[in-house]
Automatic annotation (TrEMBL), chain A:
<dbReference type="Pfam" id="PF03845">
    <property type="entry name" value="Spore_permease"/>
</dbReference>
<protein>
    <submittedName>
        <fullName>Spore germination protein</fullName>
    </submittedName>
</protein>
<feature type="transmembrane region" description="Helical">
    <location>
        <begin position="217"/>
        <end position="240"/>
    </location>
</feature>
<keyword id="KW-0813">Transport</keyword>
<dbReference type="GO" id="GO:0016020">
    <property type="term" value="C:membrane"/>
</dbReference>
<keyword id="KW-1133">Transmembrane helix</keyword>
<feature type="transmembrane region" description="Helical">
    <location>
        <begin position="81"/>
        <end position="100"/>
    </location>
</feature>
<feature type="transmembrane region" description="Helical">
    <location>
        <begin position="335"/>
        <end position="357"/>
    </location>
</feature>
<keyword id="KW-0812">Transmembrane</keyword>
Automatic annotation (TrEMBL), chain B:
<dbReference type="Pfam" id="PF25198">
    <property type="entry name" value="Spore_GerAC_N"/>
</dbReference>
<dbReference type="InterPro" id="IPR038501">
    <property type="entry name" value="Spore_GerAC_C_sf"/>
</dbReference>
<dbReference type="InterPro" id="IPR046953">
    <property type="entry name" value="Spore_GerAC-like_C"/>
</dbReference>
<keyword id="KW-0564">Palmitate</keyword>
<keyword id="KW-0449">Lipoprotein</keyword>
<protein>
    <submittedName>
        <fullName>Germination protein GerC</fullName>
    </submittedName>
</protein>
<dbReference type="GO" id="GO:0016020">
    <property type="term" value="C:membrane"/>
</dbReference>
<feature type="domain" description="Spore germination GerAC-like C-terminal">
    <location>
        <begin position="224"/>
        <end position="387"/>
    </location>
</feature>
<dbReference type="Pfam" id="PF05504">
    <property type="entry name" value="Spore_GerAC"/>
</dbReference>
């Protein structure tokens, strides 16, 4: 694939924001709340700190292999077979993540909005739009994210402003009652879900026009997304209280139900659902696009478009097969963060280390 | 570009075809909108009753009036879910709970423990948590749901708004929503408290449309007292002044009337217009302590006695007496709660915040420690204005 599609630094930063917020805005708050209780917001702040570390790591990897995608770099550094194995693992990880994202949409819709609708129907329609986006390519996804960004910001501002009056700071006290342990445990998910999952962007980096600006855009995007996530977690804890934040399947949705301005502006929780559908859609599309990039690279395909429909069928099938019921899906929270960390952060560290040992001769475009 | 357009267009057309409806469509005329839900103890399980709006009777344009604006249905079942579904055998439409305004719990069930009846509402995706929960004092919830009310044609809306209004302007009621209630049932340092609702007059008459035909409405629904719980079990009631004290301590008090005795007999009332209270916990020498600071601003509202009120120091005198009344209410409320052994004020949570280490030691026997808890009050009232007239005309009234 020589004729590279290009996106600019701004679009790259936006993609980073969408991936950070992504599905996490709805799924995440309950996870640290279960681990860290009312200190979940501290976990979220710690998550940002660790997340910045993760982003710095990713952008270093991106810089070293400028002009090459993540899996390409893996093959250069580790050799055809070992690198291929890493690429295969990455491929599987991306595929599972895409399927999980589709399933999250399905589970949410059938839990909160349309309980009698078969989940397959929702999956097929959602996947159809995702496939269209993947078919149209990276530029299209990037422009879509750009187009919807003002709407996202507007909704976010509305959401936060309307909730600020309901904050009860007493829900946050006492701080760190059980010490640092639970907070750190909560920080695993607040680091992994929003930030470690940014590893897909390593496949996108070669497509960024001005490769010098990558680190800046990457950091800006991830930081913005991280602040939004931390804010949502903070609101969940301070308004719902630790018990309900942990007990609710979708705390931020329960939060949105609380909006009531003068008995008049109420029942607008769909705003949150819309925000989530939007960010999750961009995230899923980008994941599935990266899936095709990896696939095309691994099998040396000239173009990936002919693969979109068949792999889409697999995606829908996998999204249903990935867990038999909601409990299994929720229990993935026990190990999913570690998968994110292993395949994102772990692989990056491995590549950097091996690349460093084998010397700079491997990166032809060093210094860019 | 042609290549791209064809599947895209096809997809759009497909999407259009599906946009016309979905599995879960609910047409308005297929729904029975439930405004109030009542639950009572049955021999086995629950006796659940609902109050459903009759749309043609409450519509703004229609004259209405000849039929009851609401209909009630009831059914029993081992679980809430079963009882509610069993109602479909009597309801013409499927019950729709998203507009629920009021959840009434029968006193008998509340005394036995109401926790189990709450899960369905918090779990169901259709239910929202913005309805108020009250206890039918001395009655069955079903009886409460069957009383017709004037002004607001839907009794549940009447009860919803009058709870809001009375909490704001009168104080001895609390508006509690499901989220708060569940949190209070679960948390160790606070116990739930719900407002009681009772029927004044003959319940049988209240069910008839006749009840709306006369101006004095022979049978009415009235909020009365606050029910205090230990976990999910009702264990006692606060009377009106204790309830006021309760509202004041928990910073729910907004506006109310405080009546104070005058030195030469008769009474004077001040209207509290702003009020704020704060509790502060501390643990001294291994003993927990709570200080409640209550600040309020008030105006003189009603002078029904011979008292000089325009003098330089007369307002201070009234302030002192009003503070005394408020303190008394609060002390009575605490004394009652101590007697019942249940911490409805959330003092435990406050101690928890003040000293987490002490709390982790005592949290399981808090009910006992609460009985010995030292609670002191700092009451500060500022009277700002005395209304539109100075001295009362009563002073110069011909004897």
């Amino acid at each position: 694939m020589k004729n590279l599609v290009l996106i600019n630094g701004r679009q790259f930063a936006l993609l980073a924001i969408y991936i950070t917020i992504g599905d996490t805005i709805l799924i995440l708050p309950a996870v640290p709340a279960q681990a860290a209780g009312r200190d979940a917001w501290i976990s979220a702040l710690l998550g940002i700190v660790f997340g910045i570390g993760v982003v710095l790591l990713y952008s270093t990897v991106g810089k070293r292999n400028a002009g090459r995608t993540f899996v390409d770099y893996a093959e250069t550094v580790l050799g055809r077979w070992l690198g291929g194995a890493v690429a295969c693992a990455f491929l599987g990880y991306i595929f599972l993540s895409s399927a999980a994202h589709v399933r999250e949409i399905g589970d949410f819709m059938t839990t909160q909005m349309m309980p009698e609708t078969p989940i397959h129907a929702i999956h097929i329609f959602y996947a159809a739009v995702v496939l269209l986006a993947v078919y149209l390519g990276l530029e299209c996804i990037a422009r879509t994210s750009e187009f919807f960004f003002p709407v996202l910001i507007l909704f976010l501002i509305v959401f936060v402003l309307f909730l600020v009056p309901s904050i009860e700071t007493s829900n946050l006290l006492p701080v760190m009652e059980n010490g640092l342990g639970p907070v750190m445990q909560g920080a695993v998910s607040t680091t992994a879900y929003p930030f470690a999952e940014l590893s897909v962007l390593l496949m996108v980096i070669p497509h960024v026009k001005n490769s010098g600006a990558i680190r800046g855009s990457f950091l800006k995007g991830a930081l913005f997304g991280g602040v939004v996530i931390a804010l949502i977690i903070f609101l969940s804890i301070s308004i719902l209280g630790q018990d309900l934040a942990a007990r609710n399947m979708y705390p931020s949705y329960a939060l949105a139900k609380k909006i009531d301005v003068g008995q008049f502006l109420q029942r607008i929780e769909v705003i949150l659902a819309f925000m989530w559908l939007l960010t999750s859609f961009i995230k899923t599309s980008l994941y599935f696009y990266v899936f095709h990039m990896t696939l095309a690279h691994l099998f040396r395909l000239q173009q990936y478009r002919s693969m979109v429909l068949p792999s889409g069928v697999l995606l829908v099938a996998m999204s249903v097969l990935i867990s038999p019921n909601i409990n299994h899906f929720q229990q993935m929270n026990d190990y999913w963060p570690y998968m994110d960390l292993t395949l994102g952060v772990g692989t990056s560290l491995l590549l950097l280390a091996v690349g460093f040992i084998r010397g700079g001769s491997l990166s032809p475009k060093q210094g860019t | 570009m042609r290549r791209v357009r064809t599947p895209g267009t096809l997809l759009l057309i497909l999407a259009l075809a599906m946009a016309t409806g979905c599995w879960n469509r609910r047409e308005l005329n297929d729904l029975a909108i439930v405004t109030a839900l009542g639950v009572d103890k049955a021999e086995r399980g629950y006796h659940v009753s609902v109050q459903v709006v009759d749309p043609s009777e409450v519509a703004a344009r229609s004259s209405g009036g000849s039929f009851s604006p609401v209909t009630t249905y009831d059914a029993t079942g081992d679980t809430m879910a079963e009882a509610i579904r069993r109602m479909t055998t009597v309801t013409p439409r499927k019950l729709y709970f998203a507009h629920l305004r009021l959840f009434v719990i029968g006193e008998a069930l509340a005394r036995e423990g109401m926790g189990k009846s709450l899960d369905l509402l918090s779990r169901d995706q259709e239910g929202r948590t913005d309805f108020y929960i009250v206890v039918a004092k001395g009655h069955k919830a079903f009886d409460v749901l069957r009383i017709l009310t004037p002004m607001e044609r839907i009794p549940a809306s009447k009860m919803h708004s009058s709870l809001q209004v009375s909490e704001r302007a009168w104080a001895p009621t609390v508006s509690v929503q499901l989220d708060d209630l569940i949190t209070e049932i679960v948390a160790k340092g606070i116990q739930p408290a719900l407002t009681g609702i009772t029927i004044k007059g003959d319940p049988i008459v209240g069910r008839e449309l006749q009840n709306l035909r006369t101006p004095d409405t022979p049978t009415r629904l009235q909020y009365q007292g606050i029910a205090v719980f230990r976990s999910d079990k009702l264990i006692g009631w606060l009377n009106e002044s204790e309830s006021k004290g309760f509202s004041d301590i928990t910073n729910r008090l907004n506006s109310t009337m405080v009546e104070i005795p005058c030195p030469e007999g008769g009474k004077l009332a001040v209207e509290v217009i702003r009020s704020k209270s704060k509790m502060e916990g501390s643990v001294k020498n291994g003993k927990p302590e709570i200080v409640v600071t209550m600040r309020s601003e008030a105006n003189v509202a009603d002078v029904e006695c011979h008292m000089h009120i325009t003098g330089r120091n007369s307002l201070e005198e009234i302030e002192k007496r009003a503070e005394e009344t408020m303190r008394l209410n609060a002390e009575q409320a605490v004394a009652k709660a101590k007697k019942l052994g249940t911490d409805v004020f959330g003092f435990g949570e406050e101690i928890h915040r003040a000293s987490p280490t002490y709390w982790s030691r005592v949290q399981n026997e808090w009910d006992q420690i609460f009985k010995e808890l030292t609670v002191s009050f700092k009451v500060d009232m500022k009277i700002r204005r005395i209304g539109t007239v100075g001295e009362s005309f009563l002073d110069e009234m011909k004897e």
